[in-house]
C-alpha cells in the first residue's frame, strides 16, 4: 500500500459505550548521537544541569509554564525548560521540523501528519500496551505499537454558546436538533444585536471543527470513519457528512454569521462571545476555558453537544488533542530528562483539568467546563482503530481524493459558495466530493471496494 498521507491516523481505543462522566534556542538539541530507536529507561543524576527547549502552540501561558518549572525542579533542581511559543503553529512547526536541530520537545498537532512520519521526527516514548493502562488516547500518536506523542488533553466537539444571549433572544433551552438550532439563531438575529453564529472562516482550521461532528456526534458509531473507506457516495443527502456540511452552508447563506467571515479569527470570536456580542460558535471543548476567562460571568459560557440526537439521545465526537513529543535527534543524556518532563506534564501538571479538557490520566475527574455535557447525559464517542490491514488506508484515500478531510480548504469552499463568491451550489460540491472519493476508492482499493467493508 503506497503512502500518500498528509494527516495523522487516529488509532484509538474502542467506542466508549457509556457516558464518561461517571465520576465526577536550539542549543538544547544536538544530533551527535543516534536517534532513539527504543525506550531504554536509565538512571539519571537528578542533579544534572541542562536547558531543554520546548516549542509550543500556546501563547500567553508564561505564568503556567513557570509553575511547571517550580514543580519539575523538585525532581530535577538544575534543569531549566525554555518554552518557545510559535504563532501560526501548524504552518510554522513544519518549517522548524525541516531542521534536525529544532529543539528538544514540541507539540504535535492532531490530525496533522501521518503515522508513518512519527518515527521520522520523534523519539519513541513507550509502548501502547503499557501506556493504555493509564492514559486515554494512548495510541493516537503511535505506529506499530510504539508511542511517539502523548496527548496533552482530549477534546469533545460541539457548540460553544453564550447562554445569556440565548435567553435575551427568547431561547430557553440549548438546541438539540438542527431545527431548534436554526430557530435559536434566527431569534438571536431578530431580538438582539448579537451575531448569531461566528463561523470563523478566516481562522481556517476552525471550519474543520464542523466535520468532527459528522462522525460520532451524528452516528454514535465509533467505526464510522473506518466505514467511510468502503462507503459508496458518503457525501450524499441523508448521510452525516452531507447533513453537517449543509448546516454550515445554510448558516452562512441565511446570513446568520459575522458580516465579513474572510477576516474573522479565533481571538476575535472568543472575545465577542465572552462579551455577549456572539451567541454561538462550532468548536472543540478546549475553547471553553479561554472564553470563560474573557467573560465577565464565566457561567454564561456553556459547551454543548452538536444539535443532533438519535431517538432523543445525544452524542459527541471526542479526539486526542495536541501531543507532547521529543526530537528523535536528541542526545541520549538529554532524552531521559525530556521524557521525564513529558511524563510530569501528563501526570502531575493538571493541564488537562485546568484547561477544561478530557483527562488523559484514566479515572481522573472531569472539569466543570464539561458539566453541561454531563448534565445532558451526552455519550462520548471515540474513533475506533482500523483493522491492521486497513492502517493508513483512510489517509491514502484522503490524499488521493485531495479532499483532506480533517482540514479546512474544502470547508472554506463551502463557505465561499454560501457567501456567493463562487457559482457553485452546495449539491454540486457534494457531488464533486463523492466523485473524487469514489475515484480514490477505485484507484487504491479496486472497483469492488464496497464489498470489502470489514466493519
UniProtKB/TrEMBL annotation:
Gene3D superfamilies: Periplasmic binding protein-like II. It comes from the Bacteria. The keyword Lipoprotein applies. The keyword Thylakoid does not apply. Residues 1-22 form the signal peptide. It is found in: Periplasm. InterPro entries: Bact_solute-bd_prot1 (IPR050490), SBP (IPR006059). Belongs to the bacterial solute-binding protein 1 family. This is ABC transporter substrate-binding protein. It comes from Sphaerochaeta associata.
Amino acid at each position: 500500500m503506497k503512502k500518500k498521507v498528509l494527516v495523522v491516523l487516529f488509532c484509538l481505543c474502542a467506542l466508549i459505550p457509556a457516558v464518561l462522566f461517571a465520576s465526577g534556542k536550539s542549543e538544547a538539541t544536538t544530533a551527535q548521537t543516534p536517534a532513539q530507536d527504543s525506550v531504554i529507561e536509565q538512571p539519571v543524576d537528578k542533579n544534572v544541569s541542562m536547558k531543554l527547549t520546548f516549542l509550543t502552540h500556546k501563547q500567553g501561558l508564561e505564568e503556567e509554564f513557570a509553575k511547571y518549572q517550580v514543580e519539575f525542579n523538585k525532581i530535577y533542581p538544575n534543569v531549566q525548560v525554555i518554552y518557545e511559543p510559535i504563532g501560526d503553529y501548524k504552518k510554522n512547526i513544519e518549517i522548524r521540523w525541516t531542521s534536525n536541530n529544532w529543539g528538544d520537545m514540541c507539540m504535535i498537532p492532531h490530525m496533522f501528519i501521518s503515522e508513518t512520519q512519527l518515527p521520522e521526527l520523534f523519539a519513541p516514548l513507550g509502548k501502547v500496551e503499557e501506556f493504555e493502562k493509564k492514559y486515554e488516547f494512548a495510541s493516537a500518536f503511535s505506529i506499530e505499537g510504539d508511542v511517539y506523542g502523548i496527548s496533552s488533553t482530549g477534546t469533545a466537539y460541539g457548540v460553544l454558546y453564550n447562554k445569556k444571549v440565548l435567553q435575551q433572544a427568547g431561547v430557553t433551552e440549548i438546541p438539540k436538533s438542527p431545527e431548534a438550532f436554526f430557530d435559536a439563531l434566527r431569534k438571536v438575529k431578530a431580538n438582539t444585536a448579537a451575531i448569531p453564529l461566528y463561523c470563523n472562516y478566516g481562522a481556517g482550521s476552525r471550519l474543520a471543527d464542523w466535520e468532527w461532528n459528522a462522525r460520532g456526534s451524528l452516528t454514535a458509531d465509533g467505526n464510522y470513519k473506518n466505514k467511510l473507506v468502503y462507503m459508496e457516495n458518503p457525501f450524499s443527502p441523508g448521510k452525516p457528512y452531507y447533513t453537517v456540511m449543509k448546516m454550515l452552508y445554510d448558516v452562512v447563506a441565511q446570513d446568520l454569521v459575522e458580516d465579513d467571515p474572510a477576516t474573522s479569527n479565533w481571538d476575535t470570536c472568543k472575545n465577542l462571545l465572552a462579551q455577549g456580542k456572539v451567541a454561538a460558535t462550532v468548536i472543540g471543548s478546549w475553547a471553553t476555558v479561554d472564553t470563560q476567562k474573557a467573560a465577565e460571568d464565566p457561567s454564561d459560557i456553556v459547551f454543548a453537544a452538536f444539535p443532533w440526537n438519535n431517538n432523543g439521545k445525544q452524542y459527541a465526537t471526542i479526539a486526542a488533542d495536541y501531543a507532547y513529543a521529543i526530537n528523535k535527534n536528541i542526545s541520549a543524556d538529554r532524552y531521559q530528562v525530556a521524557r521525564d518532563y513529558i511524563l510530569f506534564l501528563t501526570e502531575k501538571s493538571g493541564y488537562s483539568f485546568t484547561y477544561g479538557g478530557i483527562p488523559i490520566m484514566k479515572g481522573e475527574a472531569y472539569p466543570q467546563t464539561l458539566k453541561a455535557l454531563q448534565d445532558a447525559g451526552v455519550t462520548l464517542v471515540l474513533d475506533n482503530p482500523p483493522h491492521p490491514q486497513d492502517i493508513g488506508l483512510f489517509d491514502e484515500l484522503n490524499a488521493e481524493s485531495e479532499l483532506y478531510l480533517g482540514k479546512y480548504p474544502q470547508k472554506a469552499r463551502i463557505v465561499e459558495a454560501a457567501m456567493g463568491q463562487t457559482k457553485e451550489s452546495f449539491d454540486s460540491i457534494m457531488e464533486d466530493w463523492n466523485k473524487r472519493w469514489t475515484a480514490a476508492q477505485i484507484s487504491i482499493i479496486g472497483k469492488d471496494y464496497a464489498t470489502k467493508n470489514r466493519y
